[in-house]
Automatic annotation (TrEMBL):
Membrane topology: Multi-pass membrane protein
Species for this entry: Rhynchospora tenuis
Any one of the GO BP annotations: intracellular protein transmembrane transport
UniProtKB keywords: Membrane, Transmembrane, Transmembrane helix
This protein's GO CC annotations: TAT protein transport complex
MF GO annotations: proton motive force dependent protein transmembrane transporter activity
Similarity annotation: Belongs to the TatC family.
Compartments (UniProt record): Membrane
Residues spanning the membrane: 20-45, 82-104
Lineage: Eukaryota, Viridiplantae, Streptophyta, Embryophyta, Tracheophyta
Major location (coarse): membrane
Stated name of the protein: MttB
């Protein structure tokens, strides 16, 4: 009878440095982007002249940003890109919601302080 050689059944690992670097970059890039988006959306608008109203009116650009970020950071599988895009966009929406709540609370606090006379009223 014929015998099979064990050499023909062995699986050889051929690591490629490009694949490893790309994999590492994706693992590090996705959490860093996802963790910085709320900070950017909450802290950036006021000093830079951006407003929560402007962010809410330009949501289509934020959706494009999440699509591009997902396309660059996930494998070329469409389902991975859709899931990553939806997660990033939901983080953006949550951050806008939190920024809106913070804005409303700050406006209420300053209005109450003006009414009580603790701070000066704005000159109009």
């Amino acid at each position: 009878m014929g015998s099979t050689s064990t050499n023909s059944l062995m699986i050889k690992l051929q690591p490629k440095i490009y694949d490893y670097i790309l994999f590492t970059f994706r693992i590090l890039f996705i959490p860093s982007v996802c963790s910085q988006i709320p900070v950017i959306v909450i802290c950036l608008p006021e000093p830079r002249g951006l407003s929560v109203e402007m962010l809410t009116s330009n949501r289509r650009f934020l959706m494009v940003f999440s699509l591009i970020t997902a396309a660059l950071s996930t494998p070329p599988d469409i389902w991975c890109q859709i899931v990553a895009s939806l997660l990033i966009y939901s983080i953006i929406e949550l951050a806008i919601f939190v920024a809106l709540i913070i804005k409303v609370r700050e406006e209420g606090w300053t209005r109450r302080m003006r009414e009580s006379g603790s701070i000066e009223k704005k000159a109009e």
